[in-house]
Amino acid sequence: MVLQMNANPGIENFRHYPDEVVQKLRGILARGAQAYPDPRRKNFFDVENGSRMFFIHVAPTGRVWLLASWLKESRGAQVGVREFAAARS
């Protein structure tokens, strides 16, 4: 689904991510972002933006809670980890 917020959604940054991470989330939510609803929690989403993922909660007030953000692993990085583990065995 596409999740789109108003032009300047308020974001609570509980884990003190750098400002550029928060601004990136704000921008993609304003434009519309690919979001995956959490099947076990209402109003929680994984939001995808290229190589970065965000885990957010949209509060009833409309504020966004940034709960986690991480870089997605590339296919090459996954293969490299497997090769490293095999070499150590």
SSE blueprint and pairings:
Layout: E1 2-3, E2 11-13, H1 19-31, E3 33-37, E4 44-49, E5 52-58, E6 64-71, H2 75-88
Can you walk through the features of this model?
It is a single chain. By secondary structure, this protein is α+β, with helices and mostly antiparallel strands. It has one domain: YaeB-like fold (2-Layer Sandwich). The protein is built from two helices and six strands. The protein has a six-stranded mixed beta sheet with strand order 1-3-4-5-6-2, with helices on one face. It is globular. The N and C termini lie far apart (42 Å). The C terminus is likely disordered.
Order of helices and strands: EEHEEEEH
What proportion of the residues is helical, as a percent range?
25-40%
Kindly, what is the distance between the CA atoms of the first and last residues, rounded to a whole number of angstroms? 42 Å
CATH architecture: 2-Layer Sandwich
Shape category: globular
Number of H- or I-type helical stretches: 2
Uncertain spans: 76-89
Count of discrete structural domains? 1
- Radius of gyration, taken over Cα atoms and rounded to an integer in Å: 16 Å
- Mean pLDDT across all amino acids: 84
- Percent of residues in beta strands: 25-35%
- Within the CATH hierarchy, at the fold level, what is the topology? YaeB-like fold
Strand order of the largest sheet: 1-3-4-5-6-2
* Total E-strand runs: 6
CATH class: Alpha Beta
Largest sheet: 6 strands, mixed
Report the structural category: alpha+beta
